[in-house]
Amino acid sequence: xxxxxxxxxxxxxxxxxxxxxxxxxxxxxxxxxxxxxxxxxxxxxxxxxxxxxxxxxxxxxxxxxxxxxxxxxxxxxxxxxxxxxxxxxxxxxxxxxxxxx
Length: 101
Known about the structure:
By secondary structure, this protein is mostly helical. The protein has helices spanning 5-21, 29-36, 43-54, 56-70, 81-96. It contains five helices and no strands. The relative contact order is 0.20.
């Protein structure tokens, strides 16, 4: 599986905002991320995600996006957070009803 640590950092920040709005989403970030990419959800994939989150590319993008948000600059391809949260919530609910592997 090829992961894009920079895209994952942007996803994680958006997901964290949605978790704040919808607490039932907590604990399902990895499942939603993998499901959105139509990848199998298992422990091996979760370890790959954890390794990607420790990478310099991920950490650098996380800092860059947080800095841009602090300056009031929204990412060019972003949609309103409410729409993002609705889509993530729908995917999270779908994942929550699947048996865990």
